[in-house]
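Reproducibility note. Readers wishing to regenerate the assembly model reported in the main text can use the exact inputs given here. Chain order matters: entities are listed in the order in which they were concatenated for prediction.
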Amino acid sequence: MEVSIALSIAWAALLVLAVFIYVVLDGFDLGIGILFGLVPERKNRDVMMNSVAPVWDGNETWLVLGGGGLFAAFPLAYAILMPALYAPVIAMLLALVFRGVAFEFRWRTERWLKWWDRAFIIGSTMAAFSQGVILGALLQGVAVDGRAYGGGWWDWLSPFSFLTGIAVVAGYALLGATWLVMKTEGPLQEKARKLAWGFGVATVAFIVIVSLFTPWLEATYHERWLSTPGIFLAAPVPIAVAIITLAMFRSLTIHKHEYRPFILSLVLFALCFAGLGISMYPYIIPTEVTIFEAAAPFNSQIFMFVGAVILIPIILAYTALAYWVFRGKIDPEEGYH
Amino acid sequence: MDALLLARIQFAFTVSFHFIFPAFTIGLASYLAVLNGLYLRTNKDVYLRLFRYWIKIFAITFAMGVVSGITMSYQFGTNWSVFSDRAGPVIGPLMAYEVLTAFFLEAGFLGIMLFGRNRVGPTLHMIACLAVAGGTALSATWILSVNSWMHTPAGFVIGENGQFLPQNWLEIIFNPSFPFRLAHTLTAAYLTTAFIIGGVGALHLLRGERDNEGVKVMFSMAMWMAAIVAPIQIFLGDMHGLNTLEHQPQKVMAMEGHYESHPEGAPLYLFGIPDDETQELKYAVGIPKLSSLILKHDLNAPMDGLDTIPDDEQPPVTIVFWSFRIMVAIGFLMLGVGLFSLWARWKNTLFTNRWLHRTAVAMTPSGLVAVLAGWITTEVGRQPYTIYGLMRTEESVSPIAAPAVAGSLLFFIVVYFLVFGAGVFYLMRLANRPPLLAEPRAKDQKGPIRAAGITPASQVILADADDPGIARSRINWGPGGTPKLDTTPVPDGEHFTGDDQIDDGQASEDNPAEKPGDKNGKGE
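Running the prediction on these inputs yields the following structure tokens for the assembly.
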């Protein structure tokens, strides 16, 4: 019994890791799509696209691992959450279709180029927004009836989930902008710096607003964040957010800092994840289903765990290889590689 | 319509659309790896040309496969949540292994395969090609294990909460129908690709590209595949059918149109109109006792019909009966093309026999049709169950209101037709252009003229004005849409070639029309 509890915690940690890797990796390439609308020049758009073209597919695979891992390790949670989040999940999938094919299609046509650019912008923005809505809807809780979803098909929509939706769009745009600071030069880099400022301010503002809202959604969150002893564990997170925020904005003003803004924005996302973890643990569906209740049987979790422990480091190694191969600034003359 | 039917239509629609892309990319990835290997081994330029020609098509198809596949990984939960809850402990881990071993492998190395030749050198680039090809096949292996388990479940017990609990993973993975389904489906994917490649080659042969080495090589390779693999596939299909007879007899009854039992040898029906209401095959045309011979290897072997199966456990016969016939008919047509090509090869008319070429062009999409027909046969033949004999489709569905499912289905239909329609259009346009080979006039353009980025008019004419792969790279579209010749290099719209360009200058010298512009942009 002890072992299976530890295993469930390990799986939850692994899933959080997968989702976090997804959020930061696809975060910056969805962010590129969101920023596309603010960078009208053809040549700059080509450079932006090229900066993520070799890696976006791998980035999106982490989303499949997130969904597949949830299905495999916590099938009950998967079975309750997917119907509960039906509309935003479908919207996200369709949005990802548009932005995914735009990578290939926009190089194949002149006539329709601007339409595929629009598909890329709207698809990326919509996917980010849907993911934010999913987060908000999860945090505010879903109705559970036995082993199934017990609510209606509009329950996910609320001012809070709308807010988290916009917050994620802003956050991804920040990641995209700091990524561009790292990967580009000259006027485009300058523009990216400015965009990073704007979306940085927006992101931090949304982090504050969402954080102020959250403790009042559920008694559990309130307890974690605002009463002893939870507050001692929780308090370092907002303090760290404040420090990282200042460091990031300072870094954006220093010309020779090209990598640092991106890394600091990643740290910002990691801190938000830590905050979410503090709110939610040990629930996988807040205040309804814990990770232990939703856990797949020991046989399933251990079978996958062995594989995951061996394979994920290998995956990280060759993913790192792919990033290493395509390191450095994007050459605007290189075309679509 | 009720929510169950809508959910079934949505799943069938999205999975059918998804299936056609991997059916093509599984074979194409291997073909590309073979081409790259041949190029590295022989150093013959033609293989590199073909690699570049097909990799553009591969990239678009792969992207469509990825995005339509992400949808599938979530749709189990959105629309089949009860199934997901109960079967998750068994099939979830298999799908997780698919992601961990196959999807990441493909995605991680795809970038290097497409863009990285000059960055990583030939060895690592070749490894990337093999990783992508292996990844696609591995992905098929895992998902077919999942699918096979739903047909022939094994290695589990049913828990108190209704979940299927894994007991023996080897029995689960290597469940009884898995080896047959895997062999039959993978072979189908390779055959599908061979007929698409052969059809494109034949098209250009018909258009007079008989001196185009690339066209000849691709056509010849595809016809070898057809001749060798089509008979193997028919044999594998037969094995798979016998396996199905053993484990899912009512599926075979529906495929055969056997409503009645035949105690003294069953006929092989070639035609008929199945009627589930009256439980009879109308206007049946059949060959006596042949079905018994094929399935039992004995003319007089008794065979049970659907009359031995309760009505509420029968699959819908009409769909299974016809989709099976379509698949089999295409299989034999493929065999015919393979034999035709052998005959033409023997007569030394492989590149001149116009009837062979016309047939091959007509057969271009045949693999895709056969794959879908086969898929429909096996999946509809499993009905009314999702997990054969244990869990019914009607119990598997999510508790979602019909309007929500209708709405999502509508969006899927509109988006898929729009997006994948456009994608298929771009694929066909790429395939409509022959692989450009060493053209004499290209040599003339070496040197200062090309270095200045000026393109001879003849090449502009060659280019489709809307195909940036050719046109945009040399022409800057000035204000008002007037093309002006540009002296500064413009980013090459041609997909992955800028990269191949650099490590391999000779190709571009031979062939500026396929790879224009870069040389002056990068190399010199």
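We highlight two features of this model. Residues 2-334 of chain A form one domain. Strands of chain A lie at 144-145, 148-149, 283-285, 289-290.
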